[in-house]
Amino acid sequence: MDKVIDARGLACPQPVILTKKALEEAEEVTIVVDNPVSRDNVRRMAESQGCEVEVKERGDGIYLHLRRIASCKAVSSTAPASGPTVVVISSDQMGRGNEELGGSSCGPSSTP
């Protein structure tokens, strides 16, 4: 049976948390929200968990019907990452501690 959650009036992330808990217990879940932010957040979470999402806007709220099409547990890819390699360098020295030891100056220090 379809589980129904009324999340109208609840601030994010509460609708997402309630939806995630419901998906652990039921194959199909309908959640009612009252704003576009909650609608979008619930939809993204459900799709990332392997669920099909159907949205219907009515006068009394936004109804999202979620149905498992894959396990609604974390859906992960076993394919290796592809594309360019990105390297982030967040400092001009190696490690932490004495700047003189880890700094990027080339050549001898100018201080005696």
CATH architecture heading of the domain at 3-68: 2-Layer Sandwich
Helix count, DSSP H or I runs of 4 or more residues? 3
Strand arrangement within the widest β-sheet reads 1-2-4-3
Range of helix content: 25-40%
- Mean pLDDT, to the nearest integer, reads 81
Task: Determine the structural class based on helices, strands and strand pairing.
Answer: alpha+beta
CATH superfamily membership of the domain at 3-68 = TusA-like domain
Write a brief structural summary.
This protein is an alpha+beta fold. It is built from three helices and four strands.
Give an overview of the whole structure.
With 112 residues, the protein is of the alpha+beta class. The protein has a domain at 3-68: Translation Initiation Factor IF3. It contains three helices and four strands; from the N terminus they run βαβαββα. Strands 1-2-4-3 form a four-stranded mixed β-sheet, covered by helices on one side. Strand 3 (51-58) and strand 4 form a beta hairpin. Helix 1 (14-25) packs parallel to helix 2 (36-48). The longest helix is centred in the middle third of the chain and has 13 residues, at 36-48. The protein starts with a strand and ends in a 10-residue tail after the last helix. 18% of the residues are buried. Mean pLDDT is 81; it is low at 72-76.
